[in-house]
Every structure is written in C-alpha cells, then in structure tokens.
Design brief:
Elements lengths: L3 H11 L10 E5 L5 H11 L6 E4 L6 H4 L4 H11 L7 E4 L5 H15 L6 E4 L5 H11 L5 E4 L5 H10 L5 H21 L9 H12 L10
C-alpha cells in the first residue's frame, strides 16, 4: 500500500483551482481519463463555450489500452452527453502535450476558429503542468485551466474499479507528472514552477516505495 498522505500532497500540488468563466471555446487535452471529456461537455452545456476542441491521438498509456484516438473517444463521450457534433473539432494525431499544442494551433488557424479566450481541460493531476506548458509554448493564449471536479478519494475508487488502469498506475502517473514539472522547467519546455520541500519529500517517499514507472530520464 502506498503512502496516502504523500499521494494527497502531490494531488493537491497539481491542482490550481482557477476560476472558470465563459470563453470562446473549450480545449480538452486527451488522455486515458474520460472524465475530462465529461467535464468539457458539462462546460459546453452550461454555456461556458461555443465549441469544443478535443486533442489527442494515442500516447504512451492509451496506445496500450485503446485502438481509437483519445480525441475520438472524448468526442463520443461528449456527444452522448448532448453536445452537438457540429460544435466539436477533433485533432487526433498528437502523441504528447507538445504535439497537442502544436497541432491544435495549426487546426485553429486552418479552420479560422475564434480563439480570443478558452477554457482548457485536463486531468486533475495535470492542471499545473498543462498551465506551465501553455504559458511557455502558447504564451499569447488567453486561458484558464480546469479539470473534473472529483476528490482524490473518488479517483482512488475509480481506479480500484477500472478494468484498464490500476491504483498503482494512477500514483505512478501523478509522480511522473511531478517529475516532468521539475525537469521541463529546467530544460525550457515549460515555465518553471516552484516545488515546495513538502511536495518533493512526498515525491521521494513514493519513488522509494516503487512508484517510478512513469519517470523519465532527467
């Protein structure tokens, strides 16, 4: 069993808890987490945007569990929730966050989509990394960040019941994203983020417990 206190410290650090106000549109970043698609649909249906862009092909995790691009899976979820197909744009060839941004920018330009302001949606444990990456790679974008409104305990329950990923996968992904915030801030891939000692201590505890499967070579 992992150190729950340390996992919750990292979970809280990943959150930005930004206010979300209506914008031109919504950009949902693909992953294995279909809750992100549900959150994007919820925002559209509550009048927070006039369109949704789903971005994501198959990444390092989803290529092992799905045969359909993330963006297409997300679009299906949104349509089931009541979002009209004609307000959905799909970018489905990117395989990482940098490509998500690069290919989405090109699609927006090609389709002449209004982009004065957007709400970006991702996993709860990727809010901070997405924010820092967008600030570096898309500095002109006027955006706020949000994620599915579920607690750490609710996500634990979800992964306990999931047939695709496990609780250990969940903790490994959170730990890996924290390391990326540190490494990518140093190499210029994103703007730097301060990582408090308490958060880094939690990271070290979980790594020592064996949660190192999503770490990258620094």
């Amino acid at each position: 069993m992992f150190d729950i206190k340390s996992a919750k410290v990292i979970w809280d650090y990943h959150h930005l808890d930004q206010d979300v106000v209506p914008a031109d549109g919504i950009i949902a970043f693909g992953s294995h987490d279909l809750h992100v698609a549900e959150r994007a649909a919820e925002l559209y249906l509550s009048g927070h945007g006039r369109y949704i862009i789903f971005t994501g092909g198959l990444g390092r995790i989803t290529q092992k569990i799905w045969h359909k691009p993330e963006a297409n899976k997300f679009a299906e979820v949104a349509i089931e929730k009541g979002v009209p197909r004609d307000v959905i744009f799909i970018e489905n060839v990117s395989s990482n966050t940098g490509e998500n941004i690069q290919f989405t920018k090109k699609m927006i330009s090609d389709e002449t989509i209004s982009i004065d302001s957007v709400i970006v949606v991702d996993k709860p444990f990727k809010e901070r990394r997405l924010f820092a990456t967008l600030k570096k790679q898309w500095p002109e974008l006027n955006f706020s960040v949000t994620s599915p409104k579920y607690s750490f305990e609710e996500y634990l329950s979800y992964y306990q019941e999931s047939e695709e990923l496990t609780v250990d996968d969940f903790i490994n992904i959170m730990v890996g994203d924290l390391q990326r915030i540190d490494v990518y801030g140093d190499n210029g891939f994103q703007i730097k983020q301060e990582i408090p000692d308490t958060v880094w201590d939690a990271f070290q505890i979980l790594v020592k417990e064996g949660y190192d499967k999503q770490l990258i070579k620094a």
